[in-house]
Amino acid sequence: MNILDLNEQEINRRQSLEQLREMGITPYPAAEYPINAYTADILEEFDDNAETKREVCIAGRLMSRRIMGKASFGELLDAKGRIQIYITRDDICPGENKDMYNVVFKKLLDLGDYIGVKGCVFRTQTGEVSVHVQELTLLAKSIKPLPVVKEKDGQTYDSFDDPELRYRQRYVDLIVNPQVKDTFKKRSQVFKSMREYFDAHGYMEVETPILQSIPGGASARPFITHHNSLGVDLYLRIATELYLKRLIVGGFDGVYEIGKNFRNEGMDRTHNPEFTCMELYVAYKDYKWMMCFTEQLLEKICLDVNGTTEVKVGDNVISFKAPFRRLPMLDAIKEKTGYDLNGKSEEEIREICKTLGMEQIDETFGKGKMIDEIFGDFCEGSFIQPTFITDYPIEMSPLTKKHRDNPNLTERFELMVNGKELANAYSELNDPIDQEERFQDQLRLSEKGDDEAMFIDQDFLRAMQYGMPPMSGIGIGMDRLVMLMTGQFFIQEVLFFPQMRPEKQAPRDAAEKYVAIGVPEEIVPVLQKVGYYLVSDMKEGNAQKIQQQIGEIIKKYKLDVVKPSVADISEWLTKID
Predict the structure, then answer these.
(1) How many angstroms separate the CA atoms of 464 and 433, rounded?
(2) What residues does 496 pair with on adjacent strands?
(3) Which domain holds residue 525?
(4) Do 418 and 307 have their domain in common?
(5) Where is each Aminoacyl-transfer RNA synthetases class-II family profile domain found (predicted)?
(6) CA–CA separation, 107 vs 371, rounded Å?
């Protein structure tokens, strides 16, 4: 790395790194470090009345240090928490050589370095449980400083709270913001609880292809890639549905998959193009059974994760105590807009959309998509408590069985919580002829210009023709579920590494453009460090000031380059167009 890309702290840390090596200390040792305890366990299990002091070997980051002559206090952060450490010169340097304390600990260690300590647990005179260090080992040198979060009188200063930085540098976010780690621990508990529930019912976890020749199972725009060996374009899956149904055809009674789906669509506070979804399919069940099953599942997860069936999201207290409200979709639209869409034609619904001022509706929208847009605009956000929206129009649900009482509807529900869809479920269509006709309807929508219309999967139709048992299926957005269980408003808060736009960088001219006006090549990085990223940036500059700026950088970074004269710089400036 060019030294000009480093700040002063980074340069000092690299110099400390070299000094450690010169002293014979390996800053990145390979040997196992035999930890036998974690900070949280030490604090929880400490016994003032124990006859002997507990000896521990722990490791983690050095997060603070208070040097007080021959003795010092520090704070060590490991995977479970923080603990105070007490270090004296003579304890860690029992011989004549005191360099481990006087040089290494006091001067060459930096905050953020990984260290290992062995010692005994005790309580200080101020009442804080601490580790009295007898042996200290450097395990990994940090050459980039962490943000220093300061606290005083209950107030936090210089906190690492810029969302852009936090999401791009999640590793730093996890170190300095302990509540973030708690969110992701709860995410893991959500997944564990769900698997326990499914496994207890005898359903099998499976894996299906992520690269697919047909992006089926949902209406969404896919990502496209190319397989060089096969010489074909493939799609990143938008859903797992059609492959899981093939397994039901193959003889499994219940299968589920928790995995990544990919949709090449918009990004906002509840959408990420790469997201985690759970899909479950159970033979011989219907959507009514699935509603009861889902209520019990979510109640269990909320209890396992939060110890209660209620969770606070902003100002709303959401109860996952079963049962949940059930409301037919067209009834919900009528309730919120005053329009009854039962029996309405495509053109009639298009006129209603115009009356409602829905400017996004155009000629490519079919009946189902228009109804979906009306519900999204006027209904969805109003359902805060868990609510099953049921009985969707047939045009909206090409993979769903017709309603047993009304052939214009389907046996489908979506679960709405806190104004957003959390789950989508069907009594699955298992009539292969009906399924093919509905795929043809989707093809006609695609020909009209709907780039989210469903593809026809001929192999799936063939599988259905061998006989598919009646079943119910459900998909749950796992990222949204975690948002609810942790009280978060932004999906980026529950993804370790959310998708981000490329980092913005100031445009820079190539070195050749500077050389063309007479600038020595070794001076180009110095000029750009000053801020002259483009040759044209110097056009209105003052030669004497530019020389002074170059000199300051050469001196600060101790560069072995010759400072140009004012006359040289004046000549450069005359050659700039």
Answers:
(1) 9
(2) none
(3) 511-575
(4) yes
(5) 184-502
(6) 68
Beta strands in 412-565 (DSSP E): 412-417, 420-427, 471-477
Half-sphere exposure of 368 (CA within 13 A, CB side): 20
Query: Could you report the per-residue pLDDT of 371-411, keeping only the tens digit for each?
Result: 999 999 999 999 999 999 999 988 888 778 999 999 889 99
Asked if residue 167 has pLDDT above 80, the reply is yes
Residues 128-139: what's their mean pLDDT? 97
Tokens of 571: 């000549």
Average pLDDT, the chain: 93
Position 159 scores a pLDDT of: 75
Give the predicted TM-score (pTM) of the model.
0.88
In-domain check, residue 200: yes
Structure tokens at 195: 């698997």
Give the number of domains in the chain: 3
122 within 8 A of 169, measured Cβ to Cβ: no
- Residues annotated within the binding site for Mg(2+) are 414, 421
Angstrom distance (rounded) from CA 169 to CA 175 = 10
Q: Is residue 473 part of a domain?
A: yes
Q: Which of 59, 60, 68 is nearest to 86 (CA)?
A: 68
Q: pLDDT per residue over 479-495, tens digit each?
A: 999 999 999 999 999 99
Q: Which long-range contacts (CB under 8 A, 24 or more apart) does 476-479 make?
A: 476/277, 476/278, 476/279, 476/422, 476/423, 477/275, 477/276, 477/277, 477/421, 477/422, 477/423, 478/190, 478/191, 478/258, 478/275, 478/276, 478/277, 478/278, 479/272, 479/275, 479/276
What percent of the chain lies above the pLDDT cut of 70?
97
Tell me the pLDDT tens digit for each residue of 298-324: 999 999 999 999 999 999 999 999 999
CA distance linking residue 528 with residue 71, whole number of Å? 45
Query: Alpha-carbon distance 438 to 432, whole Å?
Result: 10
Closest CA to 499 of 319, 297, 273: 273
Sign of the alpha-carbon dihedral angle for 415, 420, 423, 428? positive
The reply to whether 458 falls in a domain is yes
The binding site comprises 414, 421
